[in-house]
Design brief:
The protein has ten helices and 13 strands. The protein is an alpha/beta fold. The protein has one domain: TIM Barrel (Alpha-Beta Barrel), CATH 3.20.20.70. An eight-stranded parallel beta barrel has the order 1-4-5-6-7-11-12-13, surrounded by six helices. A three-stranded antiparallel beta sheet has the order 8-9-10. The longest helix is centred in the N-terminal third of the chain and has 11 residues. It is globular.
Length: about 250
């Protein structure tokens, strides 16, 4: 398996949770100790971790620096993390705490020129652009922000993704919001389209993964990485799978 596997830990009020379709009212709680979950994934053979600050995603101001530092010290996992990254100071602090990559979402939609300057400042390997999307009634892929609670302006996924690709972005994370936490399968068709549009960009799939077949389908669609959330927490994906992913 050459696709990079990114086991996910979403943290809200200090606990590991999952939200269904980004809805803060549809929360499933899994564990009170995110560090213990990270250690379990590392022991199973994971090399990467996808860590999200759900409180900050809505309110701004990343709050997981102590947890990030502890995960790096205790597990050695390479971490990509975000949620609430609104200022260059947030970006620098997260990198200083040991993150391999910082995820920037809402700000990339609202202020793409500002985020492009960060991209050039820290380099394309240190930033992940999260363009999370939801199809509207007219069939357009729109880009909700602030923890997926509002839609900013009239931007569309393909337009903004191609703009960032032209600016040199290397890592692009795309979540089909309506599939997130739903165990309904990833949107392989969307990912095939993005891979074709964005040569040279490493696409990270997210949302809906339910079994190893979904991981294989995302790899076949050309995705470079895939986020594993609810299915891994609930044992629908075997922990042994983590040992087989790309490092």
């Amino acid at each position: 398996m050459t696709i990079q596997l990114l086991p996910a830990i979403d943290v809200r009020e200090g606990r590991v949770v999952r939200l269904r379709q980004g809805d803060y009212e549809q929360e499933i709680r899994y564990a009170d100790d995110p560090l213990a979950v990270a250690e379990r994934y590392a022991e199973a053979g994971a090399t990467w971790l996808h860590l999200v600050d759900l409180d900050a995603a809505r309110e701004g101001g990343y709050t997981l620096l102590p947890l990030l530092a502890a995960i790096r010290e205790r597990t050695g996992l390479r971490v990509q993390t975000g949620g609430g990254v609104r200022a260059r100071g947030d970006l620098d602090a997260i990198l200083a705490a040991g993150a391999e990559r910082v995820i920037v979402g809402s700000l990339a939609v609202r202020e793409p020129a500002r985020v492009t300057s960060w991209l050039h400042g820290v380099g394309p390997e240190r930033l992940v652009l999260a363009l999370d999307t939801r199809r509207d009634a007219t069939g357009r892929w729109r880009l909700p922000v602030h923890g997926w609670t509002s839609t900013d302006g009239d931007r569309e996924l393909s337009e903004l993704a191609e703009s960032f690709a032209g600016a040199g972005v290397r890592h692009l994370l795309c979540t089909d919001i309506d599939r997130d936490g739903s165990l309904s399968g990833p949107n392989v068709g969307l990912y095939r389209e993005l891979v074709a549009r964005l040569p040279g960009v490493s696409l990270q799939a997210s949302g809906g993964v339910r079994d190893p077949g979904d991981v294989a389908a995302a790899e076949d669609a050309g995705c470079a990485a895939i986020v594993l959330g609810r299915a891994l927490l609930e044992g629908r994906l075997p922990l042994a799978l983590l040992r087989g992913g790309a490092g």
